[in-house]
Amino acid sequence: MKKIYFSFVLLMASSLSLFAQDIILSDPLGLIDNTTVRVVNGDMWIPLEQKIYVKNNSTSPMEIMMKKVIIDTIPGSMNYFCWASSCYPSTTYESPSGTVIQPGVTNTVDGSAHYDAQGHIGISKIRYVLFKNHATEDSASLTVYWNAGYVGIDETLPFGIRFSPAYPNPATNQVSFTYNFPSGTLLPAKVQLTNLLGEVVKTVNIDDNQGKLVLPLDNLHSGIYFYSLLVKEQSLITRKLIVR
Q1: Cα–Cα distance, 239 to 105 (Å, whole number)
Q2: What's the CATH class of domain 158-243?
Q3: Are 244 and 170 in contact (CB under 8 A)?
Q4: CA–CA separation, 6 vs 117, rounded Å?
Q5: Largest Cα–Cα distance of the chain, in whole Å?
Q6: What CATH class does 2-149 carry?
Q7: pLDDT tens, N- to C-terminus, the chain (244 residues)
Q8: Are the folds of 2-149 and 158-243 the same?
Q9: Sign, CA torsion 174/166/201/161
């Protein structure tokens, strides 16, 4: 019973400490304290985002600023943040202006952090600090681990086939896929691109069991298309592709 009581006391103390702060952070997953680490997973071609909600827990209006602190980033990647109705370039580390939040109000609109691996695999670590203007010691922070890995396999296909989503998406000149067909899978297969009318506009054959497939997008108008993986003329998967 003593251990249980002690754990309960620690939990209550932690909660009271959190709510004694003038600035309280949260996100769609819940409350955030200064020890919180959010891991944002994604592939190396799709930009990632972390929402940051900011509450004025004091009894008077407060102008709150935002800054980022780089812990470690993957070379070649890019990151930025948005605050005070503006999104700042990657070279900006502190917002030039703040957002005034009224007492007891939570701002769920202005705060967000963004990361683009730009094709570089690895984990970048960045801390985002929200602080009262002219009082940097009055602050709250969130650490984000941006985990950009290989393009994920987001659906289970028959025969043990692995076929990645298109990347990049949206695309301009070309789009790529990675794939793996287990030994014994009936080949050849193909990727077929259709427009909104269902007309086939591109087809590329797959002759190897594994590798990378590049589909050129030249002569295509900007818009929405659909790509399908076909094995023995049977469509196993269809996904959307945006061409710009």
Answers
A1: 41
A2: mainly beta
A3: yes
A4: 44
A5: 73
A6: mainly beta
A7: 333 333 333 444 444 444 568 999 999 889 999 989 998 887 777 789 999 999 999 999 999 999 999 999 999 999 999 999 999 999 999 999 999 999 999 999 999 999 998 878 778 999 999 999 877 678 999 999 998 864 444 445 777 788 888 888 889 999 998 888 887 666 778 999 998 888 899 999 988 888 889 999 988 999 989 898 888 777 788 888 999 8
A8: yes
A9: positive
- Contact in structure between 139 and 132 (CB atoms under 8 Å): yes
User: H-helix or E-strand containing 187?
Assistant: none
| Cα separation, 40 vs 91, whole angstroms | 22
Residue ranges of domains in the chain? 2-149, 158-243
Say if CB 125 and CB 144 are below 8 A apart: yes
Mark 48-74 as b/e (b = at least 16 C-beta within 10 Å): bebebbbbbbbeeebebbbbbeeeebb
**Cβ within 8 Å of residue 94, ≥6 positions away:** 65, 66, 67, 68
End-to-end CA distance of the chain: 64
* Alpha-carbon gap, residue 55 to 136, rounded angstroms: 16
List the structure tokens of 185. 């899978």
Strand partners, 190: 205, 230
Half-sphere exposure of 97 (CA within 13 A, CB side): 7
| Residue 232 falls in which region: left (phi positive, over 0), alpha (psi -120 to 50) or beta | left
